[in-house]
């Protein structure tokens, strides 16, 4: 089986269209969506409808659950909470029902366990970020104990692409674009984000998992991000266009690979935690 794994679309229709075109060219058997279909961008109804036409296997993300009223926005950033409130007012009842009915966890043919945030012994699948080695090791423990016997867990939520391997008690991150999956190892696979990049990688990313060839291939898709940003600004979901000086500074920092660290530092100063 060839499985296209996508995550964190966040109502970015242009990114989703480009990604699905690429997925279609890959000739996969099934689409697996790891949640956060909505939130942040301005085309939630269109994204839900387009995705549903692909008959995907879906698990719920925290934004999907908040929009569907299954959780509150406590713990969400101000931007995220604003996006949830905006989306809730605009989605059709059918789309809300679809989001509300998505499970927190799915198992695909006994080969892949899918969650939005993390597979952990204590649960909390959709809100926990697997962004530290300690949490990833606990997720490996939960995967090893999973009743399905699956050796792969697919997760999203961090918006960071990554393939992590645990073999003979040794943990490592695999940086290749096509990873050969060993049958004596366990894997955590994060396909990154379709619609809301938070790293220097601005393209949409996803992963094609081939369970017969035992490979996980990273895919990157170029698309024009301007229409989605413009619609989000018009809807009040993003601040107005940044000044030319900020734009030039941002481009220069990205080129130097410093955009992420500087952004995190500025955020921590604003929060008073630097
Ligand atoms: Fe997300």
From TrEMBL:
Entries under PANTHER family matching the protein: BLL5683 PROTEIN, METALLOPHOSPHOESTERASE
Stretches assigned to the Calcineurin-like phosphoesterase domain: 1-212
Pfam families tied to this protein: Metallophos_2
Protein name per Swiss-Prot or TrEMBL: Metallophosphoesterase family protein
InterPro entries named in the record: Ap4A_hydrolase, Calcineurin-like_PHP_lpxH, Metallo-depent_PP-like, Pesterase_MJ0912
Organism: Craurococcus roseus
Family: Belongs to the metallophosphoesterase superfamily. YfcE family.
Highest taxon, organism lineage: Bacteria
